[in-house]
Design goal:
180 residues, single chain, mainly alpha, Serine Threonine Protein Phosphatase 5, Tetratricopeptide repeat, Pentatricopeptide repeat-containing protein, repeat, globular, E_motif
Length: 180
């Protein structure tokens, strides 16, 4: 659990070198056999940092069978850094591997859109509709004056949306001050 926390923190701070060293220390010094979560963190930090081909090589050399938690971050990295051909292959595989995971369809459709392949976007959306895949919005919660408010990103229809976004903006500024 500790190394997953370290690898996740490295990912969020884009600390590729520290992540790779930590992964190495985990296995070599402490003899910890990596779990799918450890591998997923390393693939994610490699892919996010633009090392998409290294992430693919890392996946191919894993000692366990990769799953959606491994291929998903690679797909995201392909989209972020313009590896569209590889991304199409990974995206199509993920859709077959996890046919009810809406995020995989969204990433693949976004990839086609970035390539200007609107037929691909339409095909992915049709596939979602045919398979009954629904995009579920993730809810966020915030407590203001001892009342919990529930909302989705960019939701402006809530009566308290102005107050909610003001508090979130203040929190963002405080995080920036603290981290920076």
């Amino acid at each position: 659990v500790t190394f997953i926390g370290v690898l996740t923190a490295c990912n969020h701070k884009n600390m590729l070198g520290v992540a790779l060293r930590s992964f190495g220390i985990m296995t070599e010094k402490y003899g910890i056999t990596p779990s799918i979560e450890h591998y997923g963190c390393v693939v994610d930090v490699l892919a996010r940092s633009g090392q998409v081909i290294k992430a693919l090589s890392f996946i191919r050399n894993m000692h366990i069978e990769p799953d959606g938690a491994i291929w998903g971050p690679l797909l995201n990295g392909c989209l972020m850094h313009g590896y569209f051909e590889l991304g199409q292959t990974v995206g199509k595989y993920l859709i077959e591997f996890e046919p009810q995971h809406s995020g995989r369809y969204v990433l693949l459709a976004n990839m086609y859109a970035n390539m200007g392949k609107w037929e691909g976007v339409s095909e992915v959306r049709k596939m979602m509709k045919d398979r009954g895949v629904v995009i579920v919005s993730a809810w966020s919660f915030i407590e203001i004056d001892q009342t919990i408010h529930k909302f989705v990103a960019d939701d402006k229809c809530c009566l308290n949306s102005g107050e909610i976004y003001e508090v979130l903006s203040d929190l963002g500024r405080k995080v920036e001050e603290f981290s920076g």
